[in-house]
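Hi P.,

Sorry for the delay on this. The queue was packed all week, but I finally got your sequence through. Input first:
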Amino acid sequence: MQNRTILISGASIAGPALAFWLHRYGFQPTIVERAPALRPGGYAVDFRGASVRVLERMGLLPEVRRKQTRIGAITIVDRNNKKVASMPDGFTSGELEILRGDLASIFYEATRESTEYIFDDSIAAIEETEAGVDVQFERGARRRFDLVVGADGLHSKVRSAVFGDENRFARYLGYYVSIFTIPNYLHLDHAGLYYGTLGKKVGIFSGGDPEEAKASFFFSTDPLDYARRDPAQQKQILRKYFQQEGWELSRLLEYMESAPDFYFDSVSQVKMDRWSAGRSVLLGDAAWCASPLSGMGTGMAVVGAYVLAGELAEADGNHELAFEKYESAMRGFVEKCQGIADGGTDWFVPRTHFRLWLSTQMWKILPYTPWKNMMLEVPLKIANSIHLRDYRVGQEVGVTVG
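Then the structure:
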């Protein structure tokens, strides 16, 4: 087999998922990760349809189910914590939901014996030659690999090095998001609360560890100028936008200061005409970030890892053929998943008084209308809209929904 040594940038979800399948097919994966260790905590991620079947084929579905959040009722409240409306059970959690940190740990344990992990380092430069890809690491090492995969998220270093500036591909959707762990001081039991004002929405969710909860913040604004690696500055931005909002905000902002897993970023999508160039290819959010509002990002990453590794194996490492078939298999699926977030953001976090009122009325009547089922069925239909080939025998399995 040609092109056996493969460098993957990013040790969150997409990278380890790809490494799992590459090793199974006889490749030699290496993962480089900027963080000094696995990133803990983080938001809950969803699985539906095809992505659940990929977890099953990995043999990891029982462990993921054991760690699932099982969040049920989600209540929309006013500033006095009185119920205004409710969301359908499963609306935000899909068929299966798990905290991102727990999933990353499961994938790491499944790959750490078969994959070389390089923590606390990153790719500084990439130079492709006829013999392979020469990679310069930020800590000074220089190594050659046959192929390079960028599974390093919305702000991908591989994408910037190979395809150009991020601004060419990332489309800002008008919102920022922050998520971090807090004590479960409201004693929520596998449940969640949402409180919203004009252009802002705050949530508190408890699932898994009964002593912990997750706080999420969404807010609308023009693009902000801030340092992506300066959490102190990002926390100040959050205080500026939320400290006068009432409800539980003063308590949440107080807990923010000691949160072990503070996350802050724009709500953006990545749209590219192609995901590969030469011996480099993109996977997950680096290639097609759908934004957190789609609820499909992790599922797409896991499915994409399965397809990319399978196509490389079937092509005996012929990267040109494999990359072409990978893009062909994933393109329509990705566009449908991204479409969930297109146009839906202004309903989730309304930016006009009329839309805020209309959104509140919609959530009030939703449990009594057929729309409730449709809001659950449409994402599942999209999640099942891709063939999952069985690359071991070259047969197609699963379902295709138009």
